[in-house]
1,3-beta-glucanosyltransferase
Amino acid sequence: MLWKGLVLSALSVLNSGMIFANGASGNSTSSSFTSAIKVSGNAFFNSKTNERFYIRGVDYQPGGSSNLTDPLADIDTCKRDIPVFQDLGINTIRVYTVDNSLDHTKCMQMLSDAGIYLILDINTPGASISRYDPACSYNADYLQSVFATIDAFAGYDNVLGFFAGNEVINSENTTNTATYVKAVVRDMKKYLKARGYRQIPVGYSAADIVSNRLLVAEYLNCGDDADARIDMFGVNDYSWCGDSSYTVSGYAEKVKLYSGYSIPIFLSEFGCNKVVGSRPFTEIQAIYSDSMAKVFSGGLVYEYSNETNNYGLVQISDDGASVTKLTDYYNLKKEYSSVSNPEGDGGYSTSYSISECPTYSKGVWEANNTLPEMPAAASAYFTDGAGEPLGTLISTQNMCDDVEDDDSVSSLSSVASTSNTTTSSSSSSSSSSSSQVTSSTPTGNTTSQTTSKSLVSKQVSSSSHASSSKSKGAGNIISTPLLFQWIQKVWNIIL
Ligand SMILES: *[C@@H]1O[C@H](CO)[C@@H](O)[C@H](O)[C@H]1NC(C)=O
Ligand SMILES: *[C@@H]1O[C@H](CO)[C@@H](O)[C@H](O)[C@H]1NC(C)=O
Ligand SMILES: *[C@@H]1O[C@H](CO)[C@@H](O)[C@H](O)[C@H]1NC(C)=O
Ligand SMILES: *[C@@H]1O[C@H](CO)[C@@H](O)[C@H](O)[C@H]1NC(C)=O
Ligand SMILES: *[C@@H]1O[C@H](CO)[C@@H](O)[C@H](O)[C@H]1NC(C)=O
Ligand SMILES: *[C@@H]1O[C@H](CO)[C@@H](O)[C@H](O)[C@H]1NC(C)=O
Ligand SMILES: *[C@@H]1O[C@H](CO)[C@@H](O)[C@H](O)[C@H]1NC(C)=O
């Protein structure tokens, strides 16, 4: 399984990945419909037309976390879904996990032709910051995965932005992880520069936790090092349920809370399903209103496909060949088509200042303003590129940098035993998908902690998923890019 996976990865690299290997920033998708989006002040703008850009989107990960597949690497999936996106009238999708070893050229071109942008989460279940041991999970192997995903996508003009993390801070006792999220933001932005790529916006998608929602926003947008500050902030917000209103939902208070925030904010997930029957999506009228446009730049509905958590707009047939549009779909389409963007620039501003860094406070805000240095071994990627993309098979959360790697050949045999999920609850279950399904659902703004329903989200930042990726056949852990270089050498000899 290991060998097969590696050979497949190598093949797909030879096939496609090399196109972007040199940091080329050319137009691999050139469509006037999707000229690059840039950030100016607290809003997005189309770099060609200079029109303000509002995200009208859906979150997209057919299969969810129980059957995690890269939807942008499968042409049949793209042919099935992209026409539906167009019919729905959206301009952006968010994808939570891709396989950086696969070829995305065709799907990215199809999206571009359809006028659709991509917001991409950079992590995979196995390669992400762990809430339980953030320091250990922040290592050079992890960054190799992150940078290789940048390599695979930076060439496309219709990449609107990258999320460096999703709901890593998902409670009152996980604020310490913010330090590592911010370090990843910094490393990604420095990598984009070092490789000569377009300065694609790098952001974070936050869980809506009452006790720290503002602190997270401020922390990630503060400090002297511009590279360590995010370029955009997504909030996963399920506070508008059913036929709510601007004030009842709490949207009005959020606008007040975030007003003066100096970078674009948008709803990276919305669409409360605590309703009888279908979701009316009347929040669309509020989101694209003058009142909100001063602070928010649109949002993405959670989510395209109906999975076990019942948030879907369409039902995908068992054989995957077709989709059936659900009532939610028709409701959303009606709202998107009847609500236009605010006139002019929507009252955006370029004159707001970056945020003040929140001070350390035990039990409230435990993120350190001194970020960890990038692991030394990762600097080589800045000069040479990330090297071979290793796909979704790798698990890097327990690879601490103070553990010396063996030489590349011997690590082949030793890797299988190094996995240790340090999670408390769910790691006991070998088929982790079932434990995911029981995770909490959004409950509006009544609870002190509104955790997201996003199964994928949970998976992406939780170390329990070492086991889930293993159950997909990735039982072996590849510990170093060196290993891959060695395999490539062998491969070249075979060729
Ligand atoms: C990319 O395409 C745009 C619009 O078609 C064009 O203005 C720009 O010069 C192109 N960039 C490169 C690097 O070819
Ligand atoms: C998982 O997704 C793939 C690709 O969409 C599909 O072919 C496969 O049938 C799915 N597996 C399950 C168990 O649903
Ligand atoms: C945070 O607290 C909750 C509830 O007490 C606990 O289940 C969870 O494991 C804690 N998380 C971490 C990362 O300590
Ligand atoms: C949401 O919050 C607003 C303002 O804080 C409050 O008036 C409203 O009752 C809340 N709605 C729900 C459903 O709890
Ligand atoms: C969505 O999927 C869930 C779980 O499979 C199912 O119970 C529900 O009926 C589906 N929703 C719709 C509207 O078909
Ligand atoms: C913050 O991080 C720095 C460097 O890692 C460390 O020296 C310092 O003790 C940390 N401070 C706190 C309050 O954790
Ligand atoms: C895995 O981690 C747990 C908790 O830190 C520890 O008790 C256990 O000894 C570790 N197992 C291995 C094989 O390293």
In short: The chain is about 30% helix and 15% strand.
